[in-house]
Design goal:
Blueprint lengths: L2 H22 L2 H9 L3 H29 L1 H12 L2 H7 L3 H33 L4 H46 L24 H30 L4 H4 L1 H24 L1 H21 L3 H15 L2 H10 L8 H16 L1 H7 L5 H11 L1 H5 L13
Amino acid sequence: MSNAYARWAVSMLFFANGLMVGSWAPKVPALMARLGISEALAGLIVVALGAGSICVMPLFGATVARLGSAKAVRIAAWAVAPAMLWISLAPGFGWVVATVFLFGGLIGGMDVSMNANAVALERVRARAIMSSCHGFWSLGAFAGAGVGGALIQRFGEVGHGVMVTVAFALLVAWALPRVVQDAPLPGEEKPPLRLPRSALPYLIGLMALAAMIPEGAVLDWAAVYLQREMGASLALAGWGFAACAGTMAVMRFLGDGLRRRLGAVRTLRLSIGVAMAGLALAGLAQGPLLAIAGFALAGIGIANMVPIAFSAAGNVPGLANGLGLSVVTTMGYSGMLLAPGSIGWLAESISLGSIYVVLALLLLIPLSLSHLARTADFDAS
């Protein structure tokens, strides 16, 4: 398969993954209404999403190292395809938690595998492509979040689940046969599957964690924030994360060029400053439209933080393919367990707006570690 086809194929996998994750954003308030639960119990559902990712991501990191990213992403993609339908059909709180846990694990496994495939294609093409791949993820998330609330209102949760499942399946059916094949050759010595001994992957993982906490907080709670604290309709509330995902998409398509021009470290530092301003604006806003504008500004900043961290992790020398990414993605996604789930409990006593302001200050952590992003300056062209 030609590199051009492989480039489009891995991009479509990112788009499909983003579509599924974006479709989750308006699902949270819909589940709260259907189950009659508070923010605290909704926080447990969100914890299940992060816990599933953390438990399953290392398994797919090992799968990538042993079988190659193409085979690993095929397993994860077909397994996660009906997940939104499972969640829609879950009859009670316990079943919802279980299905969301499974969804989190499989979507996280697909995340590790498709990022590893993007790194493999970077090496084949000798050119950085990670930011634009994540741009396709953001386009998918924008589509899923932007129309998800309206689809749920019009067709109900089950109808929404069916449509997401069909769209996802069509995308991956086209993409999977065309991705770059990176399976080990017969008889090739397989690298040892052990945790990295260098501190570098873990420090990069800490950067990813701090970057993904605000992204996860927007994904899981922006719709609730706009609906419950600002009186927005469900259809408008879905645009909180959609605005963030939309601006993220634009900046991610520009990100590879910015990284080549400015360098990974400077690009990361500028991105962090913009993200801090956007989160603060969203948290201090007095109405839904200004809050959505804040989320859009935050998306501009958040856009290239995670791709830079992932590209840096995928190019750490001396590690088996997939293991560095597995460490960083697991640590990054743990932010979706540690923070957005806890936000549900914190929202019982303080406002979500105040929480978004605090999250802006959290980005001082990746700012202090930004010099480590120099390994993301992969571009042999």
